[in-house]
Every structure is written in C-alpha cells, then in structure tokens.
Amino acid sequence: xxxxxxxxxxxxxxxxxxxxxxxxxxxxxxxxxxxxxxxxxxxxxxxxxxxxxxxxxxxxxxxxxxxxxxxxxxxxxxxxxxxxxxxxxxxxxxxxxxxxxxxxxxxxxxxxxxxxxxxxxxxxxxxxxxxxxxxxxxxxxxxxxxxxxxxxxxxxxxxxxxxxxxxxxxxxxxxxxxxxxxxxxxxxxxxxxxxxxxxxxxxxxxxxxxxxxxxxxxxxxxxxxxxxxxxxxxxxxxxxxxxxxxxxxxxxxxxxxxxxxxxxxxxxxxxxxxxxxxxxxxxxxxxxxxxxxxxxxxxxxxxxxxxxxxxxxxxxxxxxxxxxxxxxxxxxxxx
Length: 335
Hints:
Layout: H1 25-47, H2 54-73, H3 75-79, H4 84-104, H5 107-114, H6 117-128, H7 130-136, H8 138-154, H9 157-163, H10 165-187, H11 199-222, H12 229-235, H13 243-304, H14 318-321, H15 324-333
Helix pairs in contact: 1-2, 1-5, 2-4, 4-10, 4-13, 5-6, 8-10, 8-11, 9-10, 11-13
C-alpha cells in the first residue's frame, strides 16, 4: 500500500505492526536481483554435480534478503517518516543484520565457483585487489561503519533523505554496503584480511566492533539535539510520543540490536575457529602418519638384510666381537 497521511495512520501497536506493509519498488528489485543471481549460482553448481550447502542458501534468503524486505516494506517503513524509532530500527537492520545474513550465505565464494573461468578470475582479482583489501581492513571498515551512522544522524543527511525519496533509497544502499565491508571479510573472505588476523584476533575484533556499533545508539539516546527534530515535530501523528522520548526509544533500540547481533557473530567465529583447529589437527596427523610409514619402509630392508648376507654383529657371541687375545683364541677354538 502507499504512504498514508500522518493524521490517518493508526496507532502503532504490537497488534497492528504485522499487518502494516507497503511496496518499495527499488528495494524489491534489489532483493529480486540478489536472490536471482544467488539462485542461478546454486543451480549452476548442482547441474555440474557440485554441492552447495542448503543452510547457506536458507540463511542468505531468510536472514539476508528477508531482513532487507522487513526493513524497507514492513511497518518500520510505513512509520519511518512519522516516528524516529522505526527509522532507527530500520537503519540498524540494514547496517548490521542484513549484512550478517548475506555474508553467511557466502555469495562471493558462490560466484567464484559458479561463474565461467575468466569471469571467476576477474571476481577473485577484484576481491583480492589492493583497494578491496584497504576497504576490508578491520580498522578501516569499523571506522567507516561508525562514520556512516554518525553522518546519517548528526548531519542534515537524514532529514534531507526523509524529504527526498531517491536520497532515502541511496541511504538504504549505503548502510547495507558499508555494513557488509566488515562482515564479509571476517566471516567468509579470509584472503581479504592480513595474515595476522587469526580466529582469536577476529573474535576480539568482533567484540570491539560490537562496542563501536553501540556508540551511535548511545549518542542518539543521550543527545539533547533532536535528530531531524523539525521534520518529526511537523509529521508526528496525534497519538505519537514526544519527539525527545521517541528519539530516546530509537537510541535504546539501536543499542539493543547492536549488542544482540554480536552474540551470533561471535558464535559463528568460534565455530569456524573450532573447525579450523580440527582441520589443522587432522592434516598434522596425516602428515605424521605418512612420515612414520616412510620411515618404516626405509628401515625395513636394512633390518631384514639381503639373502645370504652375513649374520649381523648384534647377534654374534660376545667373544667374536671382542678384540685381543681372548677374542682370537675363542675364534680359533670354534668348530
């Protein structure tokens, strides 16, 4: 449905929230394109007899694309121009939750496997190029996420986006892309990270990033400066809370979601860590077993000796191995 005038919007309650939806054509096109490309890659692999995990496809579709749909077409989008807190939740979903779901689907690895030879090589080169490495460097990507959110809320950017639909759509895309810069390398594209970014280091970075992600929410909730205050004061429906209270509610929601998303993020890192250690241990065991087999094969002929060879000294009587008079005498007396 289209947007309603603020005066005619019903009170946003837990009961009315699930039924409030609107169509967002650019967001829908983005979801269809991403989903179509991902599905094409999965089908292409299956036709070649290669396996692609069903769990990755499900997470990509439900948590990744599903979050984009919820953020841009659900009640959050219906009420984002009249209440601040739906807009805040909407933005944090696009900035944190949707990138997490898309990254867990590992679309870049799927593209590298599904695309033809030359196209796959180009994608790999773009992924491992200097520019991509700089953007994906953990400190750079974390700062970009923080700067992006602060610019949205503490410059005229957000209020201008509320006035102009095209800029609003561009802001959605910006949040999604900037959020993906940190999540994709840490979870799936290890080649973009420096060699020292081991799994323990990544876990520490995710914990630190969770603290950084909470900063915009803290600032929004505690700031006496209203975010797009003029706009929301003019467009608030009669039943809406005070603009300051609305902003505090939005800031609290931002902090809560930012901290909650860190939990599954850390769990994924720890699971990958355990799997990597198991793989490394299994590889080490195989290498040791191979070395033992080679060592046994190398010593077996020497131990057995060739046919008709003299008896080894280790099994001769002691007097034959002794020098001097006693040894010579015992050898002469031997029948």
